[in-house]
What does this fold into?
Amino acid sequence: MGGNGPVAGPLPYAEVTDEAYAERAAAGFTAQEFGSAVLLSGLCPRCHHPTTSTLVDELYRRAEQPAAPAGEPGHHTVLCECEAEHPSRPEGLLGCGAYWTLRLEVEA
Ligand SMILES: [Zn+2]
Ligand SMILES: [Zn+2]
It folds into this structure.
């Protein structure tokens, strides 16, 4: 990674998603299990900064709730949580605003 040659300028924060994000993230992210949590790390498919997200197993947490969440089991919404600067980002937030759905194999 060189420090020269700026790319197209800083990417402004925007809450967007794209099917291609999920495909690229699925190919490039690594998942590590820590008990009931999964740590995902890779490059954000939108801003290409390193990002790490922690998923807590929702299946166990929601078992006691009668209303099941919409969506299929094993699908998680992942947000970009890079530490780089993105203009127009609301205070207190991380990342560029991109989000995508990641499918994890859930073993019973
Ligand atoms: Zn970023
Ligand atoms: Zn990003």
